[in-house]
Design goal:
Length: 458
Protein backbone atom coordinates (compact mmCIF):
# COMPACT_ATOMS: atom_id res chain seq x y z
CA UNK A 1 0.00 0.00 0.00
CA UNK A 2 1.54 3.27 -1.09
CA UNK A 3 0.49 6.65 0.16
CA UNK A 4 -0.07 7.74 -3.42
CA UNK A 5 -2.60 4.98 -4.04
CA UNK A 6 -4.95 6.62 -1.59
CA UNK A 7 -4.69 9.99 -3.13
CA UNK A 8 -7.90 11.34 -4.59
CA UNK A 9 -6.05 13.04 -7.38
CA UNK A 10 -8.07 16.26 -7.19
CA UNK A 11 -5.85 19.07 -6.10
CA UNK A 12 -3.46 17.14 -3.93
CA UNK A 13 -0.11 18.70 -4.62
CA UNK A 14 3.14 16.85 -4.10
CA UNK A 15 4.16 19.21 -1.35
CA UNK A 16 6.06 16.79 0.84
CA UNK A 17 9.78 17.33 0.53
CA UNK A 18 12.65 15.18 1.64
CA UNK A 19 14.94 16.70 4.23
CA UNK A 20 17.89 17.51 2.05
CA UNK A 21 18.77 20.50 0.01
CA UNK A 22 15.77 22.79 0.18
CA UNK A 23 16.42 26.35 1.24
CA UNK A 24 13.68 28.08 3.19
CA UNK A 25 12.11 31.26 1.91
CA UNK A 26 12.64 34.38 4.02
CA UNK A 27 10.33 34.71 7.02
CA UNK A 28 9.72 30.97 7.25
CA UNK A 29 8.97 29.58 10.68
CA UNK A 30 10.17 26.05 11.26
CA UNK A 31 7.85 23.79 13.20
CA UNK A 32 9.29 20.44 14.21
CA UNK A 33 6.75 17.88 15.38
CA UNK A 34 8.52 15.93 18.12
CA UNK A 35 8.14 14.00 21.35
CA UNK A 36 7.90 16.10 24.52
CA UNK A 37 7.71 15.77 28.29
CA UNK A 38 5.91 18.15 30.61
CA UNK A 39 4.66 18.27 34.20
CA UNK A 40 0.90 18.40 33.59
CA UNK A 41 0.44 17.55 37.27
CA UNK A 42 3.04 16.94 39.95
CA UNK A 43 4.87 14.35 37.89
CA UNK A 44 6.36 14.73 34.46
CA UNK A 45 4.29 13.15 31.71
CA UNK A 46 6.33 11.54 28.93
CA UNK A 47 5.10 10.61 25.49
CA UNK A 48 3.64 14.01 24.73
CA UNK A 49 3.73 15.51 21.23
CA UNK A 50 4.64 19.14 20.68
CA UNK A 51 6.90 21.45 18.67
CA UNK A 52 9.66 21.58 21.29
CA UNK A 53 10.83 19.02 23.87
CA UNK A 54 9.44 20.67 27.01
CA UNK A 55 6.73 23.20 26.20
CA UNK A 56 3.24 23.38 24.69
CA UNK A 57 2.88 24.19 20.99
CA UNK A 58 3.52 27.94 20.73
CA UNK A 59 1.01 30.57 19.71
CA UNK A 60 1.66 31.26 16.02
CA UNK A 61 1.24 34.89 15.01
CA UNK A 62 0.31 36.17 11.59
CA UNK A 63 -1.28 39.26 10.15
CA UNK A 64 -4.42 39.57 8.07
CA UNK A 65 -3.53 39.77 4.38
CA UNK A 66 0.15 38.93 4.90
CA UNK A 67 1.79 35.74 3.75
CA UNK A 68 2.78 33.12 6.35
CA UNK A 69 5.38 30.46 5.64
CA UNK A 70 5.40 27.51 7.99
CA UNK A 71 7.80 24.70 7.36
CA UNK A 72 6.51 21.64 9.20
CA UNK A 73 8.88 18.74 9.78
CA UNK A 74 7.70 15.44 11.15
CA UNK A 75 10.23 13.66 13.36
CA UNK A 76 7.74 11.09 14.68
CA UNK A 77 7.64 7.54 13.36
CA UNK A 78 3.87 8.04 12.81
CA UNK A 79 2.53 9.93 9.82
CA UNK A 80 1.05 13.38 10.19
CA UNK A 81 -0.24 16.50 8.36
CA UNK A 82 -0.94 19.94 9.82
CA UNK A 83 -4.27 21.73 9.52
CA UNK A 84 -4.96 25.44 10.18
CA UNK A 85 -8.43 25.44 11.67
CA UNK A 86 -10.71 28.22 10.45
CA UNK A 87 -8.33 29.80 7.96
CA UNK A 88 -9.94 30.29 4.55
CA UNK A 89 -6.82 29.53 2.57
CA UNK A 90 -5.95 27.66 -0.63
CA UNK A 91 -7.08 24.05 -0.56
CA UNK A 92 -3.62 22.55 -1.11
CA UNK A 93 -2.43 24.20 2.14
CA UNK A 94 -5.30 22.85 4.26
CA UNK A 95 -3.39 19.87 5.63
CA UNK A 96 -5.95 17.10 5.15
CA UNK A 97 -4.31 13.79 4.27
CA UNK A 98 -5.28 12.20 0.96
CA UNK A 99 -7.72 15.04 0.28
CA UNK A 100 -5.26 17.94 -0.05
CA UNK A 101 -1.83 16.41 0.54
CA UNK A 102 -0.15 13.14 1.25
CA UNK A 103 0.52 12.17 4.85
CA UNK A 104 4.01 13.15 5.91
CA UNK A 105 6.26 10.29 6.95
CA UNK A 106 9.15 10.47 9.36
CA UNK A 107 11.68 13.18 8.50
CA UNK A 108 9.53 14.64 5.77
CA UNK A 109 8.88 18.36 5.51
CA UNK A 110 5.84 20.16 4.14
CA UNK A 111 6.10 23.85 3.30
CA UNK A 112 2.81 25.48 4.14
CA UNK A 113 2.43 28.92 2.65
CA UNK A 114 -0.77 30.93 2.81
CA UNK A 115 -2.20 34.40 3.34
CA UNK A 116 -4.93 34.51 5.99
CA UNK A 117 -7.79 36.60 4.61
CA UNK A 118 -9.38 37.01 8.04
CA UNK A 119 -8.17 38.39 11.33
CA UNK A 120 -9.03 36.63 14.57
CA UNK A 121 -8.38 33.63 16.78
CA UNK A 122 -7.69 30.36 14.98
CA UNK A 123 -5.73 27.23 15.81
CA UNK A 124 -3.71 24.37 14.41
CA UNK A 125 -3.68 20.62 14.88
CA UNK A 126 -2.78 17.49 12.95
CA UNK A 127 -5.38 15.91 10.66
CA UNK A 128 -3.57 12.56 10.38
CA UNK A 129 -3.09 10.36 13.46
CA UNK A 130 -5.42 13.05 14.76
CA UNK A 131 -6.59 11.26 17.89
CA UNK A 132 -3.16 10.17 19.08
CA UNK A 133 -1.30 13.38 18.35
CA UNK A 134 -3.97 15.78 19.59
CA UNK A 135 -4.64 13.78 22.75
CA UNK A 136 -0.92 13.84 23.49
CA UNK A 137 -0.65 17.59 23.16
CA UNK A 138 -0.32 18.75 19.56
CA UNK A 139 -2.89 21.57 19.52
CA UNK A 140 -1.84 25.21 19.31
CA UNK A 141 -3.41 28.63 18.90
CA UNK A 142 -2.99 30.93 15.89
CA UNK A 143 -3.54 34.65 16.26
CA UNK A 144 -4.12 36.58 13.05
CA UNK A 145 -3.79 40.25 13.92
CA UNK A 146 -5.85 43.03 12.41
CA UNK A 147 -3.88 45.45 10.24
CA UNK A 148 -4.87 48.21 12.64
CA UNK A 149 -4.19 47.94 16.36
CA UNK A 150 -7.58 47.46 18.02
CA UNK A 151 -6.41 49.28 21.15
CA UNK A 152 -5.96 46.71 23.91
CA UNK A 153 -3.36 47.13 26.64
CA UNK A 154 -2.49 43.44 26.51
CA UNK A 155 -3.62 40.09 25.23
CA UNK A 156 -4.02 36.67 26.82
CA UNK A 157 -4.35 33.40 24.92
CA UNK A 158 -5.94 30.47 26.73
CA UNK A 159 -5.73 27.03 25.12
CA UNK A 160 -8.24 24.87 27.00
CA UNK A 161 -7.87 21.14 26.92
CA UNK A 162 -7.91 18.00 28.99
CA UNK A 163 -5.46 15.17 29.25
CA UNK A 164 -6.27 11.58 30.25
CA UNK A 165 -3.67 10.50 32.79
CA UNK A 166 -3.33 7.81 35.39
CA UNK A 167 -2.21 8.46 38.97
CA UNK A 168 1.45 8.36 37.94
CA UNK A 169 0.96 10.97 35.23
CA UNK A 170 1.16 8.45 32.39
CA UNK A 171 -1.26 8.63 29.48
CA UNK A 172 -4.40 6.54 29.60
CA UNK A 173 -5.85 5.42 26.26
CA UNK A 174 -7.23 8.53 24.56
CA UNK A 175 -10.44 6.87 23.45
CA UNK A 176 -12.80 4.09 24.40
CA UNK A 177 -15.46 2.24 22.41
CA UNK A 178 -18.02 3.37 24.95
CA UNK A 179 -17.01 6.99 24.57
CA UNK A 180 -16.74 6.92 20.81
CA UNK A 181 -20.30 5.62 20.56
CA UNK A 182 -21.60 8.35 22.88
CA UNK A 183 -20.38 11.80 23.87
CA UNK A 184 -16.70 10.90 23.57
CA UNK A 185 -14.06 9.98 26.11
CA UNK A 186 -13.21 12.77 28.55
CA UNK A 187 -9.87 13.70 30.01
CA UNK A 188 -9.37 14.00 33.76
CA UNK A 189 -6.68 16.71 33.96
CA UNK A 190 -8.12 20.06 32.96
CA UNK A 191 -5.58 22.53 31.65
CA UNK A 192 -5.16 26.02 30.26
CA UNK A 193 -1.95 26.33 28.23
CA UNK A 194 -1.01 22.89 29.68
CA UNK A 195 -1.17 24.36 33.21
CA UNK A 196 -3.70 23.86 35.95
CA UNK A 197 -5.28 27.14 36.99
CA UNK A 198 -2.47 29.42 35.76
CA UNK A 199 -2.45 33.07 36.84
CA UNK A 200 -1.39 35.77 34.37
CA UNK A 201 -0.47 39.36 35.28
CA UNK A 202 -2.14 42.22 33.43
CA UNK A 203 -2.25 45.95 34.13
CA UNK A 204 -4.85 46.96 36.72
CA UNK A 205 -7.67 48.79 35.01
CA UNK A 206 -6.32 47.74 31.60
CA UNK A 207 -8.17 46.30 28.64
CA UNK A 208 -7.22 42.69 27.91
CA UNK A 209 -8.13 40.77 24.80
CA UNK A 210 -8.78 37.30 26.16
CA UNK A 211 -8.69 34.68 23.42
CA UNK A 212 -10.14 31.38 24.61
CA UNK A 213 -9.74 28.34 22.38
CA UNK A 214 -11.21 24.88 22.98
CA UNK A 215 -8.68 22.49 21.46
CA UNK A 216 -9.92 19.45 23.35
CA UNK A 217 -10.65 16.24 21.47
CA UNK A 218 -14.01 15.84 23.23
CA UNK A 219 -15.17 18.36 25.79
CA UNK A 220 -17.79 21.01 25.19
CA UNK A 221 -16.84 23.68 27.69
CA UNK A 222 -19.43 25.67 29.63
CA UNK A 223 -17.70 28.96 30.33
CA UNK A 224 -18.22 32.24 32.07
CA UNK A 225 -16.09 35.03 33.51
CA UNK A 226 -16.02 36.19 37.09
CA UNK A 227 -14.68 39.41 38.53
CA UNK A 228 -14.68 41.79 35.59
CA UNK A 229 -16.70 43.78 33.18
CA UNK A 230 -16.36 42.15 29.80
CA UNK A 231 -17.82 41.86 26.35
CA UNK A 232 -17.71 39.15 23.71
CA UNK A 233 -15.99 40.74 20.72
CA UNK A 234 -15.45 37.75 18.44
CA UNK A 235 -16.71 34.22 17.98
CA UNK A 236 -14.86 31.48 16.08
CA UNK A 237 -12.45 34.07 14.77
CA UNK A 238 -14.97 36.50 13.36
CA UNK A 239 -15.84 39.83 14.99
CA UNK A 240 -19.20 39.82 16.75
CA UNK A 241 -21.51 41.85 14.54
CA UNK A 242 -24.48 41.09 16.75
CA UNK A 243 -24.50 41.30 20.51
CA UNK A 244 -23.66 37.91 22.04
CA UNK A 245 -24.93 37.94 25.63
CA UNK A 246 -22.23 37.66 28.25
CA UNK A 247 -22.45 34.24 29.90
CA UNK A 248 -22.96 33.74 33.63
CA UNK A 249 -22.75 30.82 36.04
CA UNK A 250 -26.43 30.07 35.34
CA UNK A 251 -26.23 30.50 31.58
CA UNK A 252 -22.70 29.58 30.61
CA UNK A 253 -21.41 29.82 27.07
CA UNK A 254 -21.20 26.48 25.24
CA UNK A 255 -17.90 26.29 23.42
CA UNK A 256 -17.50 23.06 21.48
CA UNK A 257 -14.26 21.39 20.46
CA UNK A 258 -12.65 23.62 17.86
CA UNK A 259 -14.54 26.76 18.84
CA UNK A 260 -13.13 30.08 20.06
CA UNK A 261 -14.40 33.08 21.93
CA UNK A 262 -12.67 36.45 22.31
CA UNK A 263 -13.56 38.62 25.28
CA UNK A 264 -12.66 42.23 25.86
CA UNK A 265 -11.98 42.26 29.60
CA UNK A 266 -11.70 45.41 31.71
CA UNK A 267 -9.27 44.43 34.45
CA UNK A 268 -10.23 45.39 38.01
CA UNK A 269 -8.67 48.65 39.16
CA UNK A 270 -7.36 47.35 42.46
CA UNK A 271 -3.90 45.82 42.45
CA UNK A 272 -4.09 42.12 43.33
CA UNK A 273 -7.70 41.61 42.25
CA UNK A 274 -8.36 38.76 39.85
CA UNK A 275 -10.64 37.80 37.00
CA UNK A 276 -11.42 34.12 36.56
CA UNK A 277 -12.30 32.15 33.46
CA UNK A 278 -14.71 29.61 34.93
CA UNK A 279 -15.76 26.25 33.52
CA UNK A 280 -18.62 24.06 34.69
CA UNK A 281 -17.59 20.42 34.55
CA UNK A 282 -20.20 17.70 35.11
CA UNK A 283 -20.89 17.00 38.75
CA UNK A 284 -18.62 19.76 40.07
CA UNK A 285 -19.07 23.38 41.03
CA UNK A 286 -17.62 25.79 38.44
CA UNK A 287 -13.84 25.85 38.62
CA UNK A 288 -11.35 28.50 37.56
CA UNK A 289 -9.49 27.36 34.46
CA UNK A 290 -7.22 30.41 34.47
CA UNK A 291 -6.99 33.76 36.23
CA UNK A 292 -5.96 37.26 35.25
CA UNK A 293 -4.26 39.14 38.07
CA UNK A 294 -4.32 42.95 38.20
CA UNK A 295 -0.88 44.48 38.74
CA UNK A 296 0.38 48.05 39.22
CA UNK A 297 -1.46 51.32 39.54
CA UNK A 298 -4.64 51.42 37.51
CA UNK A 299 -4.38 52.53 33.91
CA UNK A 300 -8.10 53.30 34.16
CA UNK A 301 -9.26 52.15 30.73
CA UNK A 302 -12.89 51.64 29.86
CA UNK A 303 -14.58 49.09 27.57
CA UNK A 304 -16.20 52.06 25.83
CA UNK A 305 -12.71 53.07 24.62
CA UNK A 306 -12.80 50.14 22.19
CA UNK A 307 -14.04 50.54 18.66
CA UNK A 308 -15.77 47.46 17.23
CA UNK A 309 -13.44 45.18 15.27
CA UNK A 310 -13.66 45.53 11.49
CA UNK A 311 -15.63 42.73 9.84
CA UNK A 312 -13.69 40.06 7.98
CA UNK A 313 -14.17 40.01 4.19
CA UNK A 314 -16.62 37.09 4.11
CA UNK A 315 -19.10 37.16 1.22
CA UNK A 316 -22.74 37.70 2.21
CA UNK A 317 -25.04 34.82 1.20
CA UNK A 318 -27.60 35.57 -1.50
CA UNK A 319 -30.46 33.71 0.18
CA UNK A 320 -33.00 34.43 -2.55
CA UNK A 321 -30.95 32.28 -4.94
CA UNK A 322 -29.71 29.65 -2.53
CA UNK A 323 -29.84 25.91 -3.13
CA UNK A 324 -30.55 23.57 -0.20
CA UNK A 325 -28.47 20.55 0.78
CA UNK A 326 -29.40 18.28 3.66
CA UNK A 327 -27.05 16.47 6.02
CA UNK A 328 -28.15 14.00 8.66
CA UNK A 329 -25.72 13.17 11.44
CA UNK A 330 -26.49 9.99 13.29
CA UNK A 331 -25.67 6.38 13.96
CA UNK A 332 -24.33 4.18 11.25
CA UNK A 333 -26.48 1.27 10.18
CA UNK A 334 -23.45 -0.41 8.65
CA UNK A 335 -20.73 -0.68 11.26
CA UNK A 336 -17.44 -1.76 9.78
CA UNK A 337 -13.98 -0.36 10.10
CA UNK A 338 -13.02 3.04 8.72
CA UNK A 339 -10.21 3.13 6.23
CA UNK A 340 -7.76 5.80 7.25
CA UNK A 341 -4.74 4.68 5.27
CA UNK A 342 -1.65 5.77 7.16
CA UNK A 343 -3.54 8.16 9.41
CA UNK A 344 -4.84 5.88 12.14
CA UNK A 345 -8.13 4.11 12.71
CA UNK A 346 -9.95 3.58 16.00
CA UNK A 347 -11.02 0.22 14.59
CA UNK A 348 -14.79 0.68 14.40
CA UNK A 349 -17.55 2.85 12.95
CA UNK A 350 -20.40 4.24 15.00
CA UNK A 351 -21.41 7.39 13.15
CA UNK A 352 -22.62 8.46 9.75
CA UNK A 353 -23.45 11.41 7.56
CA UNK A 354 -26.59 10.82 5.50
CA UNK A 355 -26.62 7.30 6.93
CA UNK A 356 -23.26 6.35 5.49
CA UNK A 357 -20.14 6.02 7.64
CA UNK A 358 -17.51 8.06 5.86
CA UNK A 359 -14.07 6.58 5.56
CA UNK A 360 -12.12 8.91 7.77
CA UNK A 361 -9.54 10.83 5.86
CA UNK A 362 -11.17 10.43 2.46
CA UNK A 363 -9.85 7.25 0.95
CA UNK A 364 -9.99 6.49 -2.73
CA UNK A 365 -13.50 5.97 -3.98
CA UNK A 366 -15.22 8.12 -1.36
CA UNK A 367 -16.95 10.89 -3.22
CA UNK A 368 -17.92 14.30 -1.91
CA UNK A 369 -21.02 14.66 0.27
CA UNK A 370 -22.07 17.51 -1.99
CA UNK A 371 -20.65 19.42 -4.92
CA UNK A 372 -21.14 23.17 -4.81
CA UNK A 373 -20.72 25.59 -7.65
CA UNK A 374 -18.06 28.22 -7.13
CA UNK A 375 -19.53 31.57 -6.16
CA UNK A 376 -23.09 30.36 -5.48
CA UNK A 377 -24.97 30.56 -2.18
CA UNK A 378 -26.04 27.36 -0.41
CA UNK A 379 -28.18 26.60 2.59
CA UNK A 380 -27.07 23.49 4.43
CA UNK A 381 -29.62 21.88 6.69
CA UNK A 382 -27.78 20.05 9.47
CA UNK A 383 -29.87 17.52 11.35
CA UNK A 384 -28.61 15.84 14.51
CA UNK A 385 -30.42 12.53 14.82
CA UNK A 386 -28.60 11.59 17.99
CA UNK A 387 -28.77 12.52 21.66
CA UNK A 388 -25.12 13.59 21.62
CA UNK A 389 -23.78 17.03 20.81
CA UNK A 390 -21.72 17.47 17.66
CA UNK A 391 -19.52 20.48 16.86
CA UNK A 392 -19.77 20.29 13.06
CA UNK A 393 -16.80 21.92 11.33
CA UNK A 394 -16.34 22.90 7.69
CA UNK A 395 -12.90 23.67 6.34
CA UNK A 396 -12.02 26.51 3.99
CA UNK A 397 -15.33 28.41 4.14
CA UNK A 398 -17.15 30.51 6.71
CA UNK A 399 -20.89 30.22 7.22
CA UNK A 400 -23.68 31.90 9.10
CA UNK A 401 -26.44 30.15 11.11
CA UNK A 402 -29.94 31.03 9.88
CA UNK A 403 -32.26 29.15 12.20
CA UNK A 404 -32.66 26.29 14.61
CA UNK A 405 -35.66 24.20 15.60
CA UNK A 406 -34.72 24.74 19.25
CA UNK A 407 -33.27 28.17 19.90
CA UNK A 408 -32.52 31.64 18.72
CA UNK A 409 -29.12 31.61 17.00
CA UNK A 410 -27.26 34.87 16.49
CA UNK A 411 -26.36 35.29 12.81
CA UNK A 412 -22.70 35.16 13.71
CA UNK A 413 -20.12 33.99 11.18
CA UNK A 414 -18.37 30.75 12.12
CA UNK A 415 -16.58 27.63 10.90
CA UNK A 416 -17.95 25.26 13.57
CA UNK A 417 -21.62 24.81 14.48
CA UNK A 418 -22.42 23.08 17.74
CA UNK A 419 -25.51 20.92 17.18
CA UNK A 420 -27.51 20.15 20.29
CA UNK A 421 -29.47 16.95 20.92
CA UNK A 422 -31.99 16.42 18.08
CA UNK A 423 -31.30 19.91 16.79
CA UNK A 424 -31.83 20.95 13.18
CA UNK A 425 -29.90 24.05 12.11
CA UNK A 426 -29.81 25.77 8.77
CA UNK A 427 -26.62 27.54 7.83
CA UNK A 428 -25.80 29.60 4.75
CA UNK A 429 -22.56 30.12 2.89
CA UNK A 430 -21.13 31.40 -0.33
CA UNK A 431 -19.05 28.65 -1.96
CA UNK A 432 -16.25 31.02 -2.86
CA UNK A 433 -13.16 28.90 -2.13
CA UNK A 434 -12.53 26.10 -4.63
CA UNK A 435 -11.39 22.67 -3.50
CA UNK A 436 -12.29 19.64 -1.44
CA UNK A 437 -13.14 20.79 2.09
CA UNK A 438 -13.31 18.40 5.00
CA UNK A 439 -16.65 18.49 6.83
CA UNK A 440 -16.76 16.65 10.12
CA UNK A 441 -17.59 16.49 13.78
CA UNK A 442 -14.80 17.91 15.94
CA UNK A 443 -15.32 15.33 18.67
CA UNK A 444 -12.39 13.37 17.32
CA UNK A 445 -13.85 10.00 18.30
CA UNK A 446 -16.88 10.81 16.15
CA UNK A 447 -14.72 12.14 13.32
CA UNK A 448 -12.64 8.99 13.31
CA UNK A 449 -15.60 6.57 13.47
CA UNK A 450 -17.68 7.71 10.52
CA UNK A 451 -18.70 11.32 11.10
CA UNK A 452 -16.49 12.91 8.50
CA UNK A 453 -16.65 13.60 4.81
CA UNK A 454 -15.94 16.44 2.45
CA UNK A 455 -17.69 19.04 0.36
CA UNK A 456 -16.38 19.88 -3.10
CA UNK A 457 -16.46 23.41 -4.47
CA UNK A 458 -15.81 23.69 -8.21
CU1 LIG B 1 -10.03 21.59 13.38
CU2 LIG B 1 -10.84 19.27 10.22
O1 LIG B 1 -10.38 20.43 11.79
CU1 LIG C 1 -10.55 22.98 10.18
CU1 LIG D 1 -19.91 14.36 17.00
Amino acid sequence: MKRREFLLGSGAAAGVLGLSGFGLAAGTQELVIQPASFALRDQVTDGMVSLSPGAPPPVLYGRQGEVMRLSVRNTLTDYTAMHWHGLRIANEMDGVPYLTQMPMGQNEVFQYEFTPPDAGTYWYHPHCMTMEQMAHGLTGVMVIAEPEDPGFDSEQVINLRDFRLDDDGAFLPAYTQRGAARAGTFGNVHTANWLQQPVYDHAAGGLVRLRVVNTDTTRIYKLHLEGAEARIIAWDGHPADVEIPLPSADTPLLVGSGQRVDFAVAMPEGEGQTVALMAKLPGQPPRAMARLHAVGATVARNLRDLKPLAANPVAKPDLANAELHEFVFGWTPEGGVPNNGFCGSLGYNFWSINRKPWPGDAAQGAGPLATLELGKTYVLRLRNESPNLHPIHLHGLAFVPLKSNQRQLPPQMTDTMLLLKDEVVEIALVADNPGDWAFHCHVIEHQKTGLTGFIRVV
